[in-house]
Amino acid sequence: MENLALIESFSEFKDDKLIDRVTLMAILEEVFRNALKKKYGSDDNFDIIVNPDKGDLEIWRNRIVVADGEVEDPNQEIELTEARKIEPDFEVGEDVSEEVKLIDLGRRAILALRQNLISKIHEHDNTTIYKQFKDIIGEIYTAEVHHIRHRAVILLDDEGNEIVLPKDKQIGSDFFRKGENVRGIIENVELKGSKPSIIMSRTSPAFLEKLFEQEIPEIFDGLITVKKVVRIPGEKAKVAVDSYDDRIDPVGACVGMKGSRIHGIVRELGNENIDVINYTTNTQLFITRALSPARVTSVSLNEESKTAQVYLQPEEVSKAIGKGGYNIRLAGQLTGYEIDVYREGVEEDVELTEFSDEIEVWVIEEFKKIGLDTAKSVIELDVAELVRRTDLEEETVQDVVRILKEEFED
């Protein structure tokens, strides 16, 4: 009963952990074997009998009886006189099994045993948590804000597991209060030492895809397929959807009546502007749809360089480029083509690269990033708008505009 009472005191915290009694007893055996090795130098001659049903274990030490005064290894051998105190009829050469009481190990050893047991159970718990979250990478998860730090928000789930939402995985407009629930996807799980590090993301395209799966029954049921998702978190996203049933309008089903279905997703993502697009294997048509809301006049493809020349009416160009160049950038990511826009019917325009003698190449590249690759495309916008869209200083933009205007005046 001494062993049982001590084991119960060791395992009193078991019920709060992710561990069953059988596993606990296996850990107990490992812990006790380590303690025996430390005390006696070896555990080879010890039998540990585990009874998980009773929550008990017995430790038996096996030694060989030798004549008095001939003991060379006290752990492996026992003098005849000592052996006969256990059983009076023992003879030299026989095996003696003697039960070891935990209390005999001493108070300090028992405290060390308990600490080692707690450490092993934490290690087991961490491995279990790691496997649990590894299995749900890419899935939506909800946890509560526990602590707000400069570089991350620390979340706790219902079981007390710590989840990290780094600053760069948060949407720009995200604002959290302690105690509120936060949704995101489990993006990564790593074991740092023996502790699992669980990373949540709200900026991943996979989060938007999973929100569609949750909110749109036809996607959940497999009637509509999400082909690809691209996004600039908190600003704009494009989602290509398809259906193998001609009777289903995939875009209409995703958006819902007056946007009713997609509204909850938009709100979750900080009013991120979401374009839902009908997927097609017709590349020219797909690029045309991807540049929505702009109306494209024609598309010319270069399959080898994966580039597309898109022609639009002058008034449609700004729509194709979009605020901050987001629309054209996302359209390129969605279709896999580098898209260049050209004004239909506009004559005597000049490529910006023609001005590389007067305008530095890196400045030209800044304009091209937002879809402005001709002189007139730059001149048509005012300086303030150009400064806002690019990372250029106002003085630099003014110099560029002056150079371009002189070309046309000449």
TrEMBL record:
Q: Which GO terms describe its molecular function?
A: DNA-binding transcription factor activity; RNA binding
Q: What InterPro entries would the database entry show?
A: KH_dom-like_a/b, KH_NusA_2nd, KH_sf_prok-type, NA-bd_OB-fold, NusA_N_sf, TF_NusA, TF_NusA_bacterial, TF_NusA_KH_1st
Q: What is its main location?
A: cytoplasm
Tell me the compartments it is located in: Cytoplasm
> Do the record's keywords include Phosphoprotein?
no
* Domain Transcription factor NusA first KH residues, every copy: 202-279
List the keywords (alphabetical).
Cytoplasm, RNA-binding, Transcription, Transcription antitermination, Transcription regulation, Transcription termination
For the keyword Magnesium, the answer is no
Pfam families on file: KH_NusA_1st (PF13184), KH_NusA_2nd (PF26594), NusA_N (PF08529)
Spell out the GO cellular component terms annotated for this protein, sorted alphabetically and separated by semicolons.
cytosol
One GO process term, biological-process aspect: DNA-templated transcription termination
Domain Transcription factor NusA N-terminal: residue ranges: 6-125
Query: For the NusA-like second KH domain, which residue ranges apply?
Result: 284-344
Summarize the subunit comment. Monomer. Binds directly to the core enzyme of the DNA-dependent RNA polymerase and to nascent RNA.
> Could you tell me what this protein does?
Participates in both transcription termination and antitermination.
**Per the similarity annotation, which family is this?**
Belongs to the NusA family.
Task: Cite the PANTHER family for this sequence.
Answer: TRANSCRIPTION TERMINATION FACTOR NUSA (PTHR22648), TRANSCRIPTION TERMINATION_ANTITERMINATION PROTEIN NUSA (PTHR22648:SF0)
In terms of HAMAP family, this protein maps to: NusA_B
Q: What is this protein called?
A: Transcription termination/antitermination protein NusA
Q: What is the lineage of its organism?
A: Bacteria, Pseudomonadati, Bacteroidota, Flavobacteriia, Flavobacteriales
The gene from which this protein is expressed is nusA
